[in-house]
From TrEMBL:
Gene Ontology CC annotation, any one: cytoplasm
Coiled-coil boundaries: none
Protein name, as recorded: Up-regulator of cell proliferation
Lineage: Eukaryota, Metazoa, Chordata, Craniata, Vertebrata
PROSITE patterns xref list: G_VLIG
Classification via InterPro entries: G_VLIG_dom, GTP-bd, P-loop_NTPase, URGCP
Organism: Rhinopithecus roxellana (Golden snub-nosed monkey)
UniProt family annotation: Belongs to the TRAFAC class dynamin-like GTPase superfamily. Very large inducible GTPase (VLIG) family.
Residue ranges of domain VLIG-type G in the record: 646-886
Biased composition (Basic and acidic residues): 1-10
Organism superkingdom: Eukaryota
Length: 888
């Protein structure tokens, strides 16, 4: 931007010729980048989250990108796996001349044109160019911006969420170099929840958990004016890095992950945070702090700079020169209450000119000589970093501005920036959510008064159905008892069917019945966050303080008691719909209700559509620990209709006690959305559907993979009464019996729950044994080595008392057998995996470790290879799965 006054009248029509000419150049630059990356086709029909999660040939190999069009998919694949190398845009060119990109061939011709073909040296140069060489045509920030521009709102949200888990700096303002219509990414940030501890740790009260969109913190912005020989990003990384460990939160030029100049990402505003752990030896600051980084020069991106000055407690300006133009820019900020600090280089700038303008700015910006810092670029010294931290610490101790991301979005709107959350569909969905959640004052009371079919009616009906099911297998069961159970069940179902859906449930049904797929997805996300916000503040406490299974006075376990406080969630509304359908179906089957009078027959169809959009649905009810069989089979029938010919399934399940990383493993492996952490996880088993790409389904032998997460069903303890153990064993048998592949997650050696061993013993007798993998997850120390070969048999040897109990319950004539002795288990085969620790560093500032990500990828590759090679049970279609559900 040129001219003294254009910075003050952004978009006001001044210098119309310039405004018309400038976007033309930028437009071609953006379109060229999108074309280079193969993303131009996604400008009308955006790339969706479901597109990015499909299982394809590439899911089974750890490939390196060879052409620029590989880069977006390589980034998404690595980001899904929480791989710390996801930002690497280095390519390995194919050694075959005909496989090389055309543009690279033309470049090579230009490079050798000055050499005599007869020259031996020229021949050597030419042959050298045939070798695989790394190439970086795309800056990682350009790749990120191009991908976000090409993605729909839900894929954008997933990208930002995964970047947060990797501790990458997040995009806050997305520049649009074609239309100059920049977007503030509020919606994309919505799903991020962070935890931290205040200093010093003093019990539960010091623990905090909140959405980064809603929590307020002081913000500090780092910007460049004109030219600076010092790197903002490297300085920010140094400020954020504890001790001598360097964290590359913000990408910078020395990372060698893609060093080309930025083409479309100038104007990008990035955000990161510091969160304290409660340990004074680790914490740089005593409270959460927000850091903002503007890419590019403030003179060219005045709107973004204006936003940063309005939301920040202090702005650090890195520059080598202060000219008349820059002075005028800063003079316009004279009304700002933000603190300003200048970071200069002693060698590159015009010293006298800088001093003259700084002296003029002292009264304007209300600064003094302590606000001017000099940094020697060649020595990123610890003392300079400490000085920056000290300045930030002084600002924190004084009264200062504290803002949330929502507050920032409000300021962005006033400046004319587009906010992604302001689209009509998103706002309609939010309004619907608020009409539901504003009535929730107490979650227990709401469940009792609004979700009436759950609680005692459903619990009693589930118990009667269990007894009735057990009679089916009894030898010559008494008909009188069977009739009594049937009568009791009908009474309970008639009682349920006498109710109408409450206003909140009706509003929920309207939300998921929307003809707009986007509005439906927006509504479900809003419901998740809204319910989490209003219904579970009492659950925000450290994981170790959560409740465990509580025995009743006599020592026996109450099967109705929760393993931990179950938060109110979307599954409760779907559970209520399921109970309306169950009650109605039961009465129709018994001839008590004409089929033509059904009101809820369309409910399974609504639920199946949610499953197809990627929402995890409850398979086993967490409140009663039972399966609503009519609801589940009805849902699967509707799924079969919607999938038509693509209904071949592989069922993959995980089993293990809570806290062993099952859900995190599945989410990392396949990009799924199972709830993680005891404080927010429902108790039931949930299922989620993954699509196999059509070009790969024939090779893999299935069209979809149905993934089942057992959640908190398996407690891992053997109760004295045996009731809980028998129930858990039955549920484990059910899940394994439905599965082609089962992953058993273990926290430490000799930690195989007795209920899972019991399920193995049962299934061994039936001959239905899934392909199984034992996953030993190191939940603490990343440096602990995996079990040695001689340890594998110990890992498969459960404690003797659990083996004896399981065998006794199965009435095994040979007493008990260790798991390693079963016919299906060979310790020498690759059934056992050691997964390194999840975190690299100390939470909450830890990133996911590269070793964890790579180990999960290898496990995924093995599972898919086993499926393709037919090592799992015979793949089934949905109709066969329905029949298997009924039998089991």
């Amino acid at each position: 931007m040129e001219g003294d006054d254009c910075e003050f009248r952004y978009g006001d029509g001044t210098n119309e010729a310039q405004d018309n000419d400038f976007p033309t150049v930028e437009r071609s630059r953006l379109q060229e980048m999108l074309s280079l990356l193969g993303l131009e086709t996604y400008q009308v029909q955006k790339l969706s989250l479901q597109d990015s999660l499909q299982i394809s040939f590439d899911s089974m190999k750890n490939w390196a990108p060879q052409v620029p069009k590989d880069l977006p998919w390589n980034f998404l694949r690595k980001l899904q796996a929480l791989n710390a190398d996801a930002r690497n845009t280095t390519m390995v060119l194919d050694v075959l001349p005909d496989a090389r990109p055309v543009e690279k061939e033309s470049q090579m011709e230009e490079e050798i044109i000055y050499w005599d073909p007869a020259d031996d040296l020229a021949a050597d140069i030419y042959s050298f160019s045939e070798l695989p060489t790394p190439d970086t045509p795309v800056n990682p920030l350009d790749l990120l911006c191009a991908l976000l521009i090409s993605s729909d709102s839900f894929l954008q949200q997933e990208i930002v969420l995964k970047m947060a888990l990797c501790q990458f700096a997040l995009p806050l303002v997305l520049p649009d170099s074609e239309n100059h219509y920049h977007t503030f990414l509020l919606w994309a940030m919505r799903g991020i929840v962070r935890t931290w501890w205040s200093q010093p740790q003093r019990g539960v009260g010091s623990f905090r958990e909140d959405s980064v969109v809603l929590s307020r913190a002081p913000a500090f912005a780092f910007v460049r004016m004109d030219v600076s020989s010092n790197s903002k990003s490297q300085l920010l990384n140094a400020v954020l890095s504890p001790g001598h460990r360097q964290w590359d939160c913000f990408w910078h030029r020395d990372l060698n992950l893609g060093t080309n100049a930025r083409e479309i990402s100038d104007g990008l505003v990035e955000m990161s945070w510091f969160f304290p752990s409660g340990r004074e030896d680790l914490d740089i600051f005593p409270e959460p702090v927000t850091f903002l980084n503007l890419r590019g020069d403030i003179g060219s991106h005045w709107l973004q700079f204006k936003l940063l000055t309005e939301i920040s407690s202090a702005v650090f300006i890195l520059t080598d020169n202060i000219s008349k133009k820059e002075y005028k820019l800063l003079y316009s900020m004279k009304e700002s209450t933000t603190k300003y600090y200048f970071i200069l280089s002693p060698y590159r700038g015009k010293r006298n000119t800088n001093l003259r303008f700084l002296n003029k700015l002292i009264p304007v910006l209300k600064i003094d000589h302590s606000h001017v810092l000099v940094k020697v670029s060649s020595t990123d010294s610890d003392s300079f970093v400490k000085r920056i931290r000290a300045i930030i610490g002084n600002v924190l101790r004084a009264p200062c501005r504290r803002v949330s991301v929502e507050d920032m979005a409000h300021a962005a709107r006033k400046l004319g920036l587009k906010v992604d959350e302001d689209c009509e569909e998103c706002q309609k969905a939010k309004d619907r959510m608020e009409r539901i959640t504003r009535k929730i004052k107490d979650s227990d009371a709401y469940r009792r008064d609004e979700l009436r079919l759950q609680g005692d009616p459903w619990r009693k009906a589930a118990q009667v159905e269990k007894e009735f099911c057990q009679l089916q297998w009894a030898v010559d069961p008494p008909e009188k008892h069977r009739a009594e159970l049937r009568r009791r069940l009908l009474e309970l179902r008639m009682q349920q069917n006498s109710h109408d859906p409450s206003s909140g449930v009706q509003e929920f049904i309207s939300g998921i019945s929307s003809p707009s797929l986007s509005e439906k997805q927006y509504f479900l996300r809003w419901m998740e966050w809204g319910l989490a916000r209003v219904a579970q503040p009492r659950l925000r406490q450290p994981p170790e303080t959560l409740l465990t299974l509580r025995p009743k006075h006599g020592g026996a376990t109450d099967l109705g008691e929760p393993l931990w406080p179950e938060p109110l969630g979307v599954e409760h509304f779907l559970r209520e719909m399921g109970q309306f359908y169950e009650a109605e179906s039961c009465l129709v089957e018994a001839g008590r209700l004409p089929a033509g009078q059904r009101r809820f027959a369309h409910f399974p169809g609504l639920a199946s559509e949610l499953l197809l959009t990627g929402l995890p649905l409850e398979l086993i009810d967490g409140s009663t620990l039972s399966m609503p069989i009519r609801w589940v089979t009805g849902l699967l029938k509707e799924l079969h209709v919607r999938l038509e010919r693509r209904s071949r399934l592989v069922v993959l399940s995980t089993l293990g006690v809570p806290g062993t990383g099952k859900s995190t493993l599945l989410n990392t492996m396949f990009g799924l959305r199972f709830a993680t952490g005891k404080s927010c996880s429902p108790r039931g088993a949930f299922m989620q559907l993954i699509t196999v790409a059509e070009g790969f389904s024939q090779d893999l032998g299935c069209d979809h993979i149905l993934v089942i997460d057992s959640g908190g069903l398996i407690g891992g303890a053997l109760t004295s009464a045996g009731d809980r153990f028998e129930l858990e064993a039955s549920l484990a048998t059910l899940l394994m019996g439905l599965s082609n592949v089962t992953v058993i997650s273990l926290a430490e050696t000799k930690d195989i729950p007795a209920a899972i061993l019991h399920a193995f013993l049962r299934l061994e007798k039936t001959g239905h044994m899934p392909n199984y993998q034992f996953v030993y997850q190191n939940l603490h120390d990343v440096s602990v080595p995996g079990p040695r070969p001689r340890d594998k048999r110990q890992l498969l040897d459960p404690p003797g008392d659990l083996s004896r109990a399981a065998a006794q319950m199965e009435k095994q004539s040979d007493g008990f057998r260790a798991l390693a002795g079963l016919a299906f288990c060979d310790p020498e085969k690759q059934h056992i995996w050691h997964i390194p620790g999840l975190w690299h560093g100390a939470p909450p500032m830890a990133a996911v470790s590269l070793a964890y990500s790579e180990a999960i990828f290898e496990l995924k590759r093995c599972l898919l290879e086993n499926i393709r090679n037919g090592l799992s049970n015979q793949n089934k279609n949905i109709q066969q799965l329905i029949e298997l559900v009924r039998r089991l």
